[in-house]
């Protein structure tokens, strides 16, 4: 079978296409023929060597969907012909994260899904929602689950709440769609006027251009009558976390998700202390979160936002496009 691997190196030339034997499923595994994978910022950061040192060669990419083409002798949850979405953290089935269940992750340290076939334990995935295309179904495990876990598992976002989504990448557009689904009002920040227009069309109530409003927290306070937002999902990290703290109401929540700006966060803690702001780190979520997300998308008929789809042969171009920051939502690679 054809597979991409990351070889040593920190640029796109480290991503190489090669041949490996097709794997055989064990008694409780299914054999998936991959149909689509989606990229996350993590995939680029691993390639660049800024996300920890996983041993190489490594099959990259955490998220995807495939068709079950064979099942092991003891498999009960899936049949040949089903579409399965593997969980990014295969051992985390439900409940809070634990040391022993959070360690193994697809796309590093475990081999990922940018390959024609993969064996997956039957417990480590869910059935893909029928209303989603392959490209859409491939976007759920990291971006969708992280947004779900941030809004509903760690917090209880509901009608009447105001949520701030930062930028218009994969996680943030799921935040927009899921918070809207829960009846919340969503404010979106972006560096692009055109992307803000698209976010409004997706259901955001207001867009804040960070070029026009570099101090976007002040704008959030204006748009909330001085109260502040209930919840900010921070994907940028860096010194900007101070603005997220400033943007939330007394007792509000800042979810720390990402580090697009910087992985080093420095801010004056006093505003957070005096306004009793809850700072909540999130590291994706469990299979239960993935299942709950899939159910909600099905019930509401919501489709994740896929910006561009690249063919398998052009996977390096997909990585380059994600890294450019030009995307609105998810970047997907489909298989022949
Ligand atoms: N903790 C977790 O479980 C978890 C899960 C998923 C992702 N993450 C992390 O969350 C971050 C976002 O991931 P993603 O996959 O959603 O990324 P992505 O799809 O690549 O999104 C990038 C978008 O964020 C905005 N952006 C880029 N640089 C920015 C900056 N310096 N400040 C503010 N906004 C910026 C841009 O939107 P505009 O052009 O509209 O401004 C860009 O399109 C990454 O750091 C990733 O590692 C963490």
TrEMBL record:
PANTHER family reported for this sequence: PTHR45033, ZINC-TYPE ALCOHOL DEHYDROGENASE-LIKE PROTEIN C1773.06C
GO molecular function: oxidoreductase activity
Span of domain Enoyl reductase (ER): 10-333
Protein name: NAD(P)-dependent alcohol dehydrogenase
Gene source species: Corallococcus carmarthensis
SMART domains referenced in this protein's UniProt entry, alphabetically: PKS_ER
Domain of life: Bacteria
Pfam families: ADH_N, ADH_zinc_N
High-level lineage: Bacteria, Pseudomonadati, Myxococcota, Myxococcia, Myxococcales
InterPro entries, per database record: ADH-like_C, ADH-like_N, ER, GroES-like_sf, NAD(P)-bd_dom_sf, Zinc_ADH-like
SUPFAM superfamilies: GroES-like, NAD(P)-binding Rossmann-fold domains
């Amino acid at each position: 079978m054809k597979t991409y691997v990351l070889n040593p190196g920190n640029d796109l030339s480290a991503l190489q296409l090669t041949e490996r034997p097709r794997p055989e499923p064990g008694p409780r595994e299914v054999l998936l023929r991959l149909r689509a994978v989606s990229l996350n910022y993590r995939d680029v950061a691993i390639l660049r060597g800024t996300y920890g040192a996983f041993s190489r060669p490594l099959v990259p990419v955490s998220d995807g969907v495939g068709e079950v083409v064979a099942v092991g002798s003891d498999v009960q949850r899936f049949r040949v012909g089903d579409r399965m979405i593997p969980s990014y953290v295969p051992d985390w089935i439900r409940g809070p994260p634990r040391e022993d269940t959070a360690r193994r992750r697809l796309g590093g340290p475990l081999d990922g899904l940018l390959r024609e076939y993969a064996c997956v334990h039957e417990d480590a995935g869910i059935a893909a929602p029928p209303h989603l295309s392959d490209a859409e179904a491939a976007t759920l495990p990291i971006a969708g689950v992280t947004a779900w876990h941030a809004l509903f598992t760690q917090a209880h976002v509901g009608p009447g709440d105001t949520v701030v989504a930062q930028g218009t990448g994969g996680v943030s557009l799921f935040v927009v769609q899921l918070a809207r689904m829960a009846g919340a009002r969503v404010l979106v920040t972006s560096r692009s006027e055109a992307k803000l227009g698209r976010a409004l069309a997706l259901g955001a109530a207001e867009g804040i251009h960070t070029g026009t409003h570099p101090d976007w927290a002040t704008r959030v306070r204006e748009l909330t009558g001085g109260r502040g937002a209930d919840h900010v999902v921070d994907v940028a990290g860096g010194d900007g976390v101070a603005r997220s703290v400033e943007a939330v109401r007394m007792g509000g929540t800042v979810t720390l998700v990402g580090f697009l700006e910087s992985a080093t966060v420095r801010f004056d803690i006093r505003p957070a202390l005096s306004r009793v702001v809850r700072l909540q780190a999130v590291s994706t979520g469990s299979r239960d979160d993935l299942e709950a997300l899939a159910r909600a998308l099905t019930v509401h008929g919501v489709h994740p936002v896929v910006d561009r789809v690249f063919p398998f042969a052009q996977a390096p171009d997909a990585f380059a496009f994600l890294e450019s920051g030009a995307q609105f939502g998810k970047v997907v690679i489909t298989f022949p």
